[in-house]
Specification:
It contains 23 helices and 16 strands. By secondary structure, it is an alpha/beta fold. The structure holds pyridoxal-5'-phosphate.
Amino acid sequence: MLYQSTRNKNVLVKSADAIKLGIAPDGGLFVPQEKVKLSPAHIMNFSEMNYNARAVEILKLFLTDFTQDEIKECVDKAYNKDKFETENIAPVYKLNDSVYFLELWHGPTCAFKDMALQILPHLLTKAVLKTGEDKEVVILVATSGDTGKAALEGFKDVEGTRIIVFYPDNGVSEIQKLQMITQEGQNVGVCAVEGNFDDAQNGVKAIFTDSAYNDLLEKYNFRLSSANSINWGRLVPQIIYYFSAYADLLKNEEIKEGEKINIVVPTGNFGNILAAYYAKEMGLPVNKLICASNENNVLTEFIRTGVYDRNREFRTTLSPSMDILISSNLERLLFDVTGHDDLRVKQWMQELKETGRYEVHDITKQKIKEIFWAGYCDDEATSQTIKETEMNYSYVIDTHTAVAKNVYDQYARETGDNTKTVIASTASPFKFNQSVLMALAGEEEIQGKSEFELLEILAEKSGLRIPKSLSQLKDKAILHNIKCKKEEMEKVVNRMLQLE
Ligand SMILES: *Cc1c(COP(=O)(O)O)cnc(C)c1O
């Protein structure tokens, strides 16, 4: 199986190259050239397997230049008792007879990004060896909060790699910031950027596409790579848990063989929901994919009208990991639903870059609408949903998951559809303790309290255990204390790699 660029079908590489490069040289994203299909019997078989066995079955279909042993080694290094606080890795929680939460936050940083970023470094180091690369890989990450920490944890002290993370100065939660600035490891760098997530992301993209700069790095024996959700090695592990959730529902006799489910995903960069789309294309019985946004609702508008327009005010919300106006992974969906029309995709992306807007044609609009439903909610509705879910079910969800639950409720009301539904639960409520407690108990309860007091209060209120990685933050030293302007990011990289 080969991979092609969404902006030029004739660029063809193996999966190891796609993972090593992160982004195609023409600025496009790598996608599999062929469709991968699973038979219904194969999908049913997953219910007899544990998470790791399911993972190997899925990954080997896409990473055909890796041996099965290599894949198994990567899977076992990523998903194990030392890294995840639950044996099931991604357990399904039953809320009521039609709604289930797929808990994707039992990994080391308490958010769903661990699902991919625990395995990516192992896939990447294998990919580097396979392609005969002799340079040291430098991972550059722009983060809206969760990716950064998850990437740092995944790559710390992995031989042959360095990692540098840029986060928006005022766009991450206190806990997220603490998690990053206390990061340990010999090969890690962390820097705050003045601006929002898109500023940080555009800065990183500019470094990747600056060919003179890349030549310079090469002279020093470094090669840039990305761990952002545009890397195929990030996306492919996310397909696994949708099959896994289905297999668990089947095993627990919540659904019958072949029964369709809805999947709701709180969406930012369109990575997680794109993985659900790929799962559906592979044969997972899916009725609707429901795309949930916060007030940065570019995707709601796009799915409803076919117009993508980023020319709007950027909002800082209670679900910061979804505060995004350019959803990079959407490019892969466009490539797929247009029947691999690379020229068209390239043109839309050009328009997006130049004018901040593009509109897809009617057939594409129609196709997208058949597959997806989209909605959004504001911060007040998010808080209300956290409170209601706790009151009705004694189950505490984080702000991102609450956006998804709220949008699902809108969907169910509007359509009357009672298909069983899996909601991707993307972060532990402890990670956004302040907003969650504010929703549950109000302002007075949190005023003047430290982050760590808040964790204790939330544990009491929710009956949940504080994840170890968060309670231990208290005793960690601050190791990363720099801030830069968005024009200075290259300089920061130079300094961290000791080029000047
Ligand atoms: C990253 C993130 C999201 C958004 O996922 P995308 O793949 O970017 O759409 C949602 N919730 C949480 C908690 C996240 O960290």
